[in-house]
Amino acid sequence: MSNQLRFSDHIPSRLVGKAGVRIPLLGLGCAPLGDYFHALPEKQVEDLICYSLEKGASFYDTAPRYGYGLSEQRLGQALYNVPREAYTLATKVGYLVENDKARHAFTRDGILRSLEESLARLGLERVDIAHIHDPDRFYQVALDVVFPTLAELRAQGVIRAIGAGMNQWEMPLQFARHADFDCFMLAGRYTLLEQGSLPLLDYCQEKGIAIFLGGVYNTGILATGAVPGARYAYRPAPPAIMQRVRQIEEVCQRYQVPLRAAALQFPAAHPAVASLVVGAESVAEYAQAFEGLRYPIPAGLWQELRDQGLIDSLAPLPAAAVQQTSEVLPPDAS
Prior knowledge:
The longest helix is centred in the middle third of the chain and has 18 residues. The protein is of the alpha/beta class. It has one domain: TIM Barrel, CATH 3.20.20. Strand 1 and strand 2 form a beta hairpin. The protein is globular and about 55 Å long. The N terminus and C terminus are likely disordered. Helix 5 packs parallel to helix 6 and helix 9 packs across helix 10.
């Protein structure tokens, strides 16, 4: 079997959670839609949504905090005439936005109001997935208050799956062990550059919990390479990171593979990963991700990265990743 991703013209998908929410392997991160200082023209947003629908990459991830509701508003407008069954949508709870400010709302009333306001901005009656948004300082409250509230909404059909969106993997692992989560959005913690979150991904694979990966370029450096000013974790990349990326780039260059393509295909190989959520402002940017996933990568590249210690020896390599991500996740075995 070839150790490469193989695609038809459409992105493959996977069923997530007990409700069977279908998630394409490539999703659109909609934070850029909420950028006040770089407002996207309406036509540009419409074209981006149309392209994603045509390619079957129609999974949209948004949140009230993205532009203080602006991302949800623009996404809702762009999807207004699109049949609801044609796309999958995730938003987040835990913050209320007022007068261009966001405040924590990790209470039952706060969660209900947060979701109600999100639905109003989106112009929808339900969302597919509700993530608890960055509950780093609210672990026990998230388990004791937020999760039970979302479980009621899931039972009512207002949401179909419950997740948490975070920039760390340790707390989601504890969530997975103590509550009936369907999925997690993990940003920047399982990439070609770092695989420390493997305990979370392996546990979620065992329990049938889906992982959505954001930040697969580690906020820039795995897209640009180790160029002057390259960004890592929203800051200029430190010397050790620059050196490691240079080593990865050298291997990619020997195999004539774009770094961006390797950065997309590597994390998709883990069977717990249901989708890569990539931020994009235009059709051209989203098309880069689509083509990166289709780029033929020789098996030798992955083995050389492993042999050089540049990727974790326990991390799955991209062998038949499409077939893995096209399968239905098993029910929670806990």
